[in-house]
Design brief:
Layout: H1 7-27, H2 33-54, H3 57-66, H4 75-87, E1 94-97, E2 106-111, E3 114-119, E4 124-126, H5 147-154, H6 176-182, H7 187-199, E5 209-212, E6 217-219, H8 232-241, H9 245-254, H10 259-266, H11 283-300
Antiparallel strand pairs: 1-3, 2-3, 4-5, 5-6
Length: 305
């Protein structure tokens, strides 16, 4: 579970912001001295925050065991799929059924109330199976003592064998365009992280993000949407995002989700899928919770919202 804890998203955003500040400083030698000093201090502060959280990996493990899921498994997957387009991300079609669907077209898993089926994306592959795993991890990790403890968290081993994605051409595994899209700090990865941070869903590691042959990324596996008693996690995310225009743009894109989108994404789900496994067992209570998160999200990322 620590491999997927939502807190990892904020850590990766910290790496992105610190990297941008450092690169901006190095590429602008003629900037005024105060600006360079402020950027340097901001980058150092961000990295200190990241190191502090890395030192608390054991605390995150405990939180992962104590925290509860907001929605039952199955419903969380369907909710994320329905909401994704409004947030600007791609999630394969999800259907909840009483029996598993055709395995040649769907990945199916049993959930309370029946089966959750995720449509296979043609010619797509988990980015874990791409040729160059180095592009998936922040370079700063290699400079930290915590690398052996933290690095694997961002690149969880894919539980699905490469053979399951036989329609993905092997030669495309090293395609430069796909590797660029899959990079740890690409715009598509940042948008995916922002969407999952809004939900407080499990971290988008390299096994639950697919790349298709067109260079488009797809998010999968949203069954773990954790419940938060407050929206403090969104405020904490903003303290990091505020140092990066690219992260802010991603978070502001998520602002296009509306209360109507939330209500529609939770409506019409058969009652037996609600009966076990989450804090909320009715669409009205769940909608109220996610509307509160949306309100906070739009306040802190108010530009263009």
């Amino acid at each position: 579970m620590i491999y997927e804890h939502p807190a990892l998203t904020r850590l990766v955003f910290g790496f992105v912001a610190a990297d941008e500040l450092t690169n901006h400083k190095e590429s602008n030698p003629m900037s005024i001295e105060f600006s360079l000093y402020a950027e340097k201090r901001a980058a150092e502060s961000l990295m200190q925050s990241v190191r502090a959280d890395l030192a608390n990996i054991d605390r995150l493990k405990m939180e992962a065991y104590l925290e509860r899921f907001a929605l039952p498994r199955g419903i969380s997957e369907l909710f994320a799929y329905r909401l994704a387009a409004a947030g600007g991300v791609r999630v394969p079609r999800v259907e909840l059924t009483q029996e598993p669907l055709n395995p040649s077209d769907w990945f199916s898993k049993e959930v309370p109330g029946g089966w959750c089926n995720s449509r296979r994306v043609p010619q797509a592959l988990p980015i874990y199976h791409l040729a160059n795993q180095d592009v998936m991890l922040p370079p700063a990790i290699k400079k930290m003592d915590n690398e052996l403890r933290f690095g694997p968290l961002l690149g969880k081993t894919c539980p699905v064998d490469r053979a399951e994605y036989a329609d993905f051409p092997e030669q495309m595994e090293s395609d430069a365009r796909l590797l660029s899209a899959a990079a740890w700090n690409s715009d598509q990865r940042l948008l995916g992280h922002a969407f999952r941070a809004f939900l407080y869903a499990s971290y988008a590691h390299s096994s639950n993000c697919l790349a298709d042959v067109k260079g488009q990324l797809w998010l999968i596996d949203h069954e773990k949407i954790m419940h938060q008693k407050t929206t403090d996690d969104i405020i904490a995310l903003h303290t990091v995002a505020n140092h990066s225009e690219r992260i802010l743009r991603a978070c502001q894109r998520v602002c296009e989700i509306t209360e109507d989108h939330i209500e529609a994404s939770l409506s019409g789900i058969p009652w037996h899928f609600w009966r076990a496994g989450g804090v909320f067992n009715h669409e009205n209570d769940a909608a109220k919770y996610f509307k509160q998160r949306l309100a906070t999200w739009k306040i802190v990322f108010r530009k263009n919202c």
